[in-house]
C-alpha cells in the first residue's frame, strides 16, 4: 500500500523525532488541533492531524492505523474525546506506536464504550445538549450538538464567537459509534499520558482520573478551569505533554 500524502510529508521532516498523529473527537474537526500544531511544528516535530471519519470505532481505528502504518519511525498517537477510543484501538499491533496521549479522551477497556463509561460517573451533561438524531440511509443516525448550547457545553473557556464558529462547523458522529464496545485497547501495553479540564462537562473529571489511574498513566494532569476542548483553550500545556511523551524512554 502506498503512503498517504500527509504521511509522506511528515516523513521528510522526521529526523530523530517521533511523528505526532492527532485524532480529533466527535463534534469537532482537525482544525481543533491548530494551537497544538503550532507549538509542535515550532519545535520541529512532524505532525499529522487525521480527519477522523466518526462513523464507527472499528472503521475509524482502521483508518488511523493505516496512517500509522505509512509513517516511518516512531509515532505518538494523540486522541481527544471519542478520538481516545480510536487511538487505543488503532495502536493495537502497531509496534511503532511509542506512546498514547489522551486529551480529555476516553480510554475504554475491551467491551466498554463511551456511553458505558459515562454510566460510571453519570455527571456529564452531553446527552442533554444533543440535537435530534439525523437518520441516514444505511440505518445509522448522525448526532450533532445543539448549536445554541455548544459554547457552554463544550467550550465555555474559549471566546463565545470562536465557540459559535465551532458549533457551526462541527462534524457529526454516528450514534452507533458512541455506543460501540471496543474490541481492543492498547493503553495496558503502550505508555500513556492523560490531560483534561477540571470543568469538562462532556466527560467528568472524575472519570478522566479513573481512566488515567486504571491505565497506570505515566502522567495525569487536570487543568483548573478548563473545558472539554482543553487543546484549544490550553494548547501550550497540551503540546508540552505530547512532547514529554515523545521524548520519554
Question: Overview of this structure, please?
Answer:
- With 249 residues, this protein is an alpha/beta fold.
- Helix content is 38%, strand content 16%.
- The protein has helices at 5-13, 34-42, 57-69, 82-90, 114-118, 147-154, 160-169, 175-178, 205-214, 230-233, 235-247, and strands at 19-23, 47-50, 75-80, 97-103, 134-135, 141-143, 173-174, 192-197, 219-223.
- It has a six-stranded parallel sheet with strand order 2-1-3-4-8-9, with helices on both faces. Strands 5-6-7 form a three-stranded antiparallel sheet.
- Helix 4 links the parallel strand 3 and strand 4.
- The radius of gyration is 17 Å and the shape is globular.
- The two termini are 30 Å apart.
Jot down its keywords:
single chain, 249 residues, alpha/beta, 6-stranded parallel beta sheet, 3-stranded antiparallel beta sheet, 11 helices, 9 strands, globular
- Residue stretches low in confidence (pLDDT < 50, at least 5 long) are 1-5, 7-14
Largest sheet: 6 strands, parallel
Question: Percent of residues in helical segments?
Answer: 25-40%
- Summed over residues and divided by their number, the pLDDT gives a mean of 94
Globally, the shape reads globular
**SSE sequence, one letter per element:** HEHEHEHEHEEHHEHEHEHH
Radius of gyration: 17 Å
Distance, first to last CA = 30 Å
Give me the oligomer status: single chain
Q: Which range does the strand content fall in?
A: 15-25%
Q: Biggest sheet, strands in spatial order?
A: 2-1-3-4-8-9
- What is the tally of beta strands? 9
Sheet/helix structural class: alpha/beta
Please count the helical segments: 11
